[in-house]
Amino acid sequence: MQSILAEVKRVNDILDSYELPSAEDDCESKIDELSEIMERLVHYGFNKSFVPKGMAVPKDTPPSEKREIKRQLRELRYIAFLKKSTLRRVEYAMASYRVAALHFKSGALGNAYRHLPYDGNLILRISRLGATAARLYFDIYELLSGEIEQLGISVDVAIPSEEGVKYEKLQLYGVRDVDDYVADMYGESAEIVKTKIITRHKSVLTSRAYRKVLACAYAVNTVTNARIPQIPEDETHELLHKYMGVLGKYGIREPVRADLLPDIKEEMVDELQKENLVYFDSNGEMCLHDELSLKLNEVINRRYWEYAKDAYGKIATDMIRHIMLTTRATRREMGIFSFDDDLSLVEPIVQKAGLSGMSKAGEMVENKMVLESTFSSSDKKLGLAVFAYYQGRKMLKEVFDVEFRDVEEDYKLIKAFLERGGGRGEKFLEHLKK
Description:
By secondary structure, this protein is mainly α. It has four domains: 2-145 and 206-225, no CATH class; 148-202, Ubiquitin-like (UB roll), CATH 3.10.20; 233-304, no CATH class; 326-433, no CATH class. The chain is built from 17 helices and five strands.
């Protein structure tokens, strides 16, 4: 018990000291340190925790012993929670530094890399920014997680025998009739006692930790830096105008529901009640004026979508930047994105962002990968020229801050190669070799 608590404190003290990296070498150093920490935690059994749901005791057990058993159960659950949360914090920190290392290689993440949870304390970072950041985090996480697809089925089979009933656990893939399969393997007397569907997220990211830290980074970056316009005066009716005025006196500039604030001041409640903006129901719960409540919800949802649109736009653009500025070998080496497995994973993000200028993102990405594979090119100009071909000079400057004249020669070769079915492939290859 004491050794586990000491190890938890040691690891958390180390993580508390982690900050924004300044270069790729800094990331690599932290990744090596975190790898050693992870190995030590696994050695101590942090990845294996047994927590009984309950414990049956005889009726005649003395009350003092029952209390002691309950205390021990609470202690086991607490230790299991500490192990799990510490292990996850290390995983999130590791994922953050890996993503940051990728950013230093390709510059793909823009300003978002500054908001990765390098200390692994993802929930704290989100909760400090309030409800909008939390809602945005969960929506981005769902988007990055993609659709859930079924891979197979896991079954527990009870097999009668002369020695008694034996149990086997099977993981079946591509089996259409599970009952017939089990009967063929173990006989007609075998019985399936438990089933579980084996699924995976068809995600643009290779692991849950990457989805979590990137969702956190983009949510925090958006809420912190997005320029969301204030509520126009002509759109506010009298009650909303009064309401925002009262909130402003107490330092609240964003439209939020006062009835959901966890630590609202009594003076603020008195002022809201005085202006007939809130009332108390029969249970003593504070409620917003009905008309104000409807208008406030409308404004909150509209403003939230402005935040979400900004976040989705950044994610879509950064994903494309990453593909255009790296090679397949680099992407595989980093092991963060799964673009090589299914290019269609990029499309839902681009569509969600509503980026009209990226309407041919899938075709653009696919051709860039084909060219990259065909010519084994590691030159960043290849990706920039492909981007310019599909998105135009203005977008090239806007997204990559690159002038068209810097990639014009490559652009002409790529244009000829794509439009003439590879007729000038040899010349293109010779150019890249130079």
